[in-house]
Amino acid sequence: MNKITDELYERFKKNLESVNGTCVRTSKENLGKAVAGIFTEAGIPDTCIVETPLMKEGGVISALEEAGIKVYTDHIRLNAETVKGGVSESQYGIADLGTMVQARDVIDERIVSTMSEYYIGILRGSTIVPEYDDMFDILAELPEMPNFVGFVTGPSRTADIECVSTVGVHGPLQMSVVVVDDE
């Protein structure tokens, strides 16, 4: 993977926003401030986080706590039912779809991305590929396929037989992606 280009980021952002997601780009040093800013603006009082080394380096938990947001990092299955926010890191992104790809066996990552009302996905810029087919090339080359591979594109939505669209039935009502510049 390479450092993300401005063009690739803009394509990812445009396609995520076309399905009602939001996207911001930040440095690792400002990651915590970016996440806290999104939740503060949305009035999210509490969140479950599946912390990764990137989030530790970016000071996500301390920034959220300084903003007055209650953070749960354990007992995710119990807390995810009642908290309003969820934060986890996805392993890949697809620019042409504005999609994050979860490709790990960690069930807590899936829980926070589907049970929270407002989900923030953290994504390293270097892991965003241009097209859908590029993602399958990467997955095919993995030494071992994870038990779960999920594609997350914007807030949850569904439609009934009469094409009445509903948001948030099978997942979050709102979703943001924070793209972190890395090399």
Task: Summarize this entry quickly.
By secondary structure, this protein is of the alpha/beta class.
Low-confidence stretches: none
How far apart the termini lie comes to: 8 Å
Taking the sheet with the most strands, its summary is:
6 strands, parallel
The chain-level structural class is: alpha/beta
Mind sketching the topology for me?
Blueprint: H1 6-17, E1 22-27, H2 31-42, E2 46-49, H3 53-57, H4 60-66, E3 70-72, H5 76-79, E4 85-89, E5 92-94, E6 99-102, H6 107-115, E7 118-124, E8 128-129, H7 132-141, E9 150-152, E10 157-159, E11 165-167, E12 174-181
Parallel strand pairs: 1-12, 2-3, 2-4, 4-7, 5-8, 7-12
Antiparallel strand pairs: 5-6, 6-9, 10-11
Q: How does this structure look, described?
A:
This protein has 183 residues and is of the alpha/beta class. Helices cover 32% and strands 28% of the residues. The chain contains seven helices and twelve strands. The strands form three sheets. It has a six-stranded parallel beta sheet with strand order 1-12-7-4-2-3, with helices on both faces. It has a four-stranded mixed beta sheet with strand order 8-5-6-9. A two-stranded antiparallel ribbon has the order 10-11. β5 (92-94) and β6 form a beta hairpin. The N and C termini lie close together (8 Å).
